[in-house]
Amino acid sequence: MNLPLIRRAHAPGAGTRLWDPEGVLVLALLLLLAAGILYPLLQVLSVAVAGDTGGFTLRHLVAFFRRPLFLESLLNTLATGFLAVLFGSMVGVPLAFLTVRHAFPGKAVLQTLGMLPLVIPPFVGAVAFQQILGRSGMVNLWLLETFGTTLPLMEGLTGVVLVQTLHYFPFIMVNTAAALAGVDPSLEEAAQNLGASGFRLFRRVLLPLALPGYAAGALITFIRVIDDLGTPLMLNYTKLLAPQAYLRVTTVGLTDVDGYVICVILVVLSVLALWGSKAALGLSEYAALQRSAEVEPRRLSGASALAAWLIAAALLGPALLPHVGIFLLSFSKVWSLSLLPTVYTLGNYEEILFRTTGFIWNTLRYALLAAAADVALGAAIAWLLLRGSVRGRGWLDVIATMPLAIPGVVLAVGYLRMFHGWNFPGLGEPLTATWLILVLAYAMRRLPYTVRSAYAALQQLPLALEEAAQNLGANRLRTFARVTAPLMARGLLAGGLIAFITSAVELSSTILLVPRIELGPLSYGIYVYMQSAVGRGPGAALGVVAIVLVGCGTWLAHRLAARGGAGSLFRL
Amino acid sequence: MSPKLSSEVRLEGVGKRYGEIWAVRDVTLTILPGEFFTLLGPSGCGKTTLLRMIAGFARPDAGRILVDGEPIDAVPPWKRDVGLVFQHYALWPHLTVYENVAFGLRERRLPRAEIAEKVSAALTQVGLEGLEARRPSQLSGGQQQRVALARTLAVQPRLLLLDEPLSNLDAQLRAQMRIELARLQRDLAITTIYVTHDQSEALALSNRVAVLQSGSVVEEGTPEDIYRRPRSRFAAEFVGAANLLPVQVVELRETGVLVEAVGGVRLPVPGDPVRWRTGARALLCLRPEALRIEEATLGRETGFFATVASRVFEGDRHIYEVKVGEGTLLRVELPALGEGRIFRLGDRVRVEFSAESAVLLPQS
User: Fold this and answer.
1) Nearest CA of chain B to the CA of A473: how many Å?
2) Of chain B residues 139-158, which have a CB less than 8 A from chain A?
3) pLDDT per residue over A381-404, tens digit each?
4) pTM here?
5) E strand or H helix at A189, and its extent?
6) pLDDT digits (tens, 9 = 90+) for B308-339
7) Does B93 touch chain A (CB under 8 A)?
8) Cα distance from B209 to chain A (closest Cα, Å)?
9) Where in chain A are the domains?
10) Is CATH 1.10.443.10 what the domain over B248-362 is classified as, yes or no?
11) How large is the angle between the packed helices A536-560 and A358-387, nearest 10 degrees?
12) N or C, fewer C-beta in 10 Å, chain A?
């Protein structure tokens, strides 16, 4: 029960509620979130359903379904979403079962390797895959030389699905593994006691119990895949909704209604996915009912351990290819129509570290500012949700969670529309003409991470720790500063790190919002470099920087949130 | 450490509602300066809620609370100057023992030297010198309890509130801490409100006790009063063990009443003749240690006959259950000293008690 604290101590009466410091804070945060998340979304929606002379019309939405290109893009987008989830499950679920339910030498290594695909931004992975599996990549060159034939692995939709599957399957693996690890072993033992074993045990007991976790992972994968703009652009495949929206806005312009309509369709898809998985997510209370003991993982040794490793290698191997590819590419001067680079160089690193340093510094500046803002906002929102008492604070949670389902392209289009031609007070130019817009976009897109981690951190704190401080004379602000914040620090920092690293490799909204190339961050730099053949080396070097940044950040975040278990930060 | 002048607390018709349910209902109590006052009751009786209202963590929905004659309901917790020791100690894990104890002093903006002095005095008071640099996680349960106490005492509050402070300690430590708490409270002469569900703690420590049931005070008085002369069935059963024998009032006398128990045994017992009427059904409360059992020899007129149904030896005493009439069981505790006769199951015995120790209670 949330025991109300004594508030309004010196200003009794209902009419003063608004001037309560807590009320002011809630109001200010609601305004900020409404301006940063809700309003741009409504802007997009309102353009899509506005008639030529104002007023409401569904004409544009109907017209969307009459355009063969758009229809094909819609079907392709759905296909990439479902196929990435399907193939991702085929890789992720067996790995989850293998690692949670079995013990064998080198399991920890395997678990770490399983997280590595997340460390490489998908659009960077796309470039590496091109180099390895593309038309003139390593594999096909070898096939051509040896068998005189090639495999069109990276062509069109196939390439997009391949890259996305191998990038996003860890979400499915981690969430499924967490759900499995949380299943009360006595439920499984009861089933065994009643005669179930092997596949029947799996299908009738484990699968239903692990379903909520699996559904969460599948949902994240689906939403991210349909939002992914970088991968299709890198692979030069544009018959998908996100690239179509991007192309409409960048080539036709902000006045083109079709761009907005595509955005609305994207949001609808995300919301439908959320709604569709709600039934499965709702089951999560079953699995977490009670835990009597740790499951004894089945020990594998000798031949069975080897088999486990072979299965894992077959499933994981392809996903680790891009790391090798991008690393090689970053040191190559010439790598064309050959299995391996023919001339090696350090020049690519010289280029990005000494000549065009802007990309890295911009990234650090934007991502750090956004993460800092998210930590502050996340802490404030979590505190209000768990310790506050002002009505309406629940809306903070609702709005702050929305970015999970808003594609980056959509938010970017909303910002462009919202700030277009309006000189921001104090800046003398529109917000979208400055780098601040990138910080705003990152902060809003990654806010759900810090709100969640702050909420979890605060939820674990016994209320008595704060009451003890108040009892000894600390008011609410002092209590927060001296007791609550220090005790939440680890969780806050872990959430902030995740916000930082995911912002550092954000491309979907970056690509639309970068005002000038010299203001572009790392992800934008990679995109720009990769447009030309000579830029691939420096682009890959930037990619390696991104991998190192994300890798270190992920490792640190997991260290900080060690109690939550590996991968808990990537759970929904 | 010299205490401030201790305070008087008055609760006037205090009530607290959670949804439709009144967790505390119309509680009126006066706690005197320097008194050790205990709120005793089972879990869910509202005793902790009452304490939290005094500390300011819950706001009364009815009535008001006054400290030294001043209403405090509008005062935020951090300005109340009432020290609360939490049930689970609520020590801050990110601070050392020293920092924990210094917390309230720092909030009061005392100079550094004075803080150091007061922290060490408070730690000495609870017998915890030398552990200043430890973290709470490096302390045993008993040590944590002492730090929590020192942290509260360090700011010299005008009131000491203790929320089941001994409930997390093992039996031996609990007995020791009980003695220390009593000594500390006596030395400091600080008004203390103690919340517990343990009747033996309440009896051992308190100047006065209020017994709570479902949010209301059912009885209030000194430990002796409540134990010897309970006025309700609830208090009789909650404070100490009680045999409750169904009886019927058969005659009102000048100094007491005559009741008839099962099997037609008539017993004269104390009781206000004005409160009772002939024919009323009542319960006769008999404390187990006030009963004696003897061999059933004919010819004696007092007491009633019973059969021994069980016997448990507890070292210092024997606890018998004897069956009276068709099924009423009475608990009898006899000291196990000396050569006293030990009865066997099925033995026919006569149960005796002195009339002064019996209390007549209304049936419900």
Assistant:
1) 4
2) 151-152, 155
3) 999 999 888 888 889 988 998 898
4) 0.79
5) helix A185-193
6) 999 998 888 889 999 987 778 899 998 887 66
7) yes
8) 24
9) 22-64+361-520, 67-288+300-319
10) no
11) 30
12) N
